[in-house]
Every structure is written in C-alpha cells, then in structure tokens.
Design a protein that fits this description.
two-stranded antiparallel ribbon; rod-shaped; 8% strand; 128 residues; mainly alpha; single chain
Length: 128
C-alpha cells in the first residue's frame, strides 16, 4: 500500500474508534441512569409495602403533592421498575455490540500498524 493510502486508512480507523468510543460512553451513561431509576423504584416499592392500605399516600407532581391511593403508587413504581429493567437489557445488548465493534477496530488498527512500522513510529512520537 502507498504511504498516502495507509495514512487515509489510519485516519478512517481513528475516526471510527472515536465515534464508537463516544457511543459506548453514551450507552454506559444511559445504563447508569436506568440502574438509578430502577433502584429508586425498588426502594420506593419496599417503603410502600410497609404501609397499611388505608395510609394516605401522596405523589409528587412538580412542587405539589397530590393524594393518591397506595395501589396506584405501587403500580406506577412497578411499571417504572419493569421499564428500567427492559431498557437496561436493551442497552446491554447495544453495549456488547459496541464492544465487539471496538475490538474489531483495534484489530484493524493493529494490523495496519504492523504493515507500516514507520507510521507506528510516527504515531508513537506524536503521543509522547
């Protein structure tokens, strides 16, 4: 391969790596948010279960609290819990896909650098 062709291939791989890394971080952040949401729903459900059925329960809507039956609040929290679990499962699949893509990109980069040791030396000198 010509020097220019290898350089273009490197730039393409580098771009794909940056893009994939960004997507992976985004998915990891979304997973963390859903885990927090799931935990909050679980803890709220546990607290609601301890209350007697005739206890007045309130739902926060903005800065207002509205009287809601305990059963309605429990259904809402169970829904949030299940939605979070489903979202986490979906995000886990996306994360695994992106990790495979990242491994493939790293392999491509490694192969390219083995083909052109001069480019590898040039990159190493730039990173120091």
């Amino acid at each position: 391969m010509g020097d220019e062709t290898i350089r273009n291939a490197f730039m393409e791989i580098q771009g794909r790596m940056i893009e994939t890394t960004g997507k992976l971080k985004q998915v990891q952040n979304q997973m963390r948010n859903k885990e927090t949401e799931k935990k909050r729903a679980y803890l709220t459900l546990e607290e609601l279960k301890q209350l007697s059925d005739d206890t007045n329960t309130y739902k926060s809507i903005g800065r207002t609290f509205v009287l809601e039956p305990k059963s309605a609040l429990m259904e809402e929290q169970e829904g949030k819990f299940k939605d979070s679990e489903a979202a986490i499962s979906s995000l886990q699949t996306s994360k695994e896909y992106l990790e495979k893509q990242m491994a493939e990109i790293e392999t491509n980069l490694r192969e390219l650098l083995q083909q052109d040791p001069a480019l590898a030396r040039q990159i190493m000198s730039m990173s120091m």
